[in-house]
Design goal:
Oligomer: single chain
Subcellular location: Cytoplasm
Family: Belongs to the DTD family.
Number of strands: 8
Low-confidence stretches: none
Number of domains: 1
Catalytic activity: a D-aminoacyl-tRNA + H2O = a tRNA + a D-alpha-amino acid + H(+); glycyl-tRNA(Ala) + H2O = tRNA(Ala) + glycine + H(+)
Order of helices and strands: EEEHEEEHEE
EC number: 3.1.1.96, 3.1.1.-
Strand content: 35-45%
Radius of gyration: 15 Å
GO cellular component, one term: cytoplasm
Length: 145
């Protein structure tokens, strides 16, 4: 499982010009799944992303997590994160979870994160999404488990 966390001033995801999810200050999280991912990994990743300290405290140090700053979380499925890009000029998706498996994992991941922290918005698996964001910093981290 891969999550690309981006600290943002705002983020929005649209499908066919309809807004599916929108947050202000918080995290836009691009989420990719691999064939060996399972429920335990989802639980661990949810904990990590909700507790990852990438927001500044009063001393301008990255010591606060998204919950401590009352930020939003926008989860966006992105199967291309799990692509194999080591060779050639075209990505291979043989290292990504199948669409059926990834859809189930994404739905479960949404439920896990929302159970722990209700300020969650989402994109739509398999849709042609347009994601708009203002990366704050920029601050971006790759989490993988």
């Amino acid at each position: 499982m891969i999550c690309l966390l981006q600290r943002v001033q705002f983020g929005k995801v649209e499908v066919q010009k309809q807004c599916l999810g929108e947050i202000q200050h918080g995290l836009v999280v691009l989420v990719g799944f691999e064939p060996h991912d399972h429920s335990e990994k989802l639980q661990k990743m949810a904990h990590r992303l909700l507790h990852y300290r990438i927001f500044s405290d009063e001393n301008n140090k990255m010591n606060l997590n998204v919950q401590q700053v009352n930020g939003g979380v926008l989860l966006v499925p992105q199967f291309t994160l799990a692509a194999n890009t080591q060779n050639g000029l075209r990505p291979s998706f043989s290292t990504s979870a199948s669409p059926t498996q990834a859809t189930l994992l994404f739905d479960e991941f949404i439920a896990v994160v929302k159970h722990k922290y209700p300020q969650v918005q989402t994109g739509q698996f398999g849709a042609d999404m347009q994601v708009t964001l203002c990366n704050d910093g920029p601050v971006t981290f790759w989490l993988q488990n």
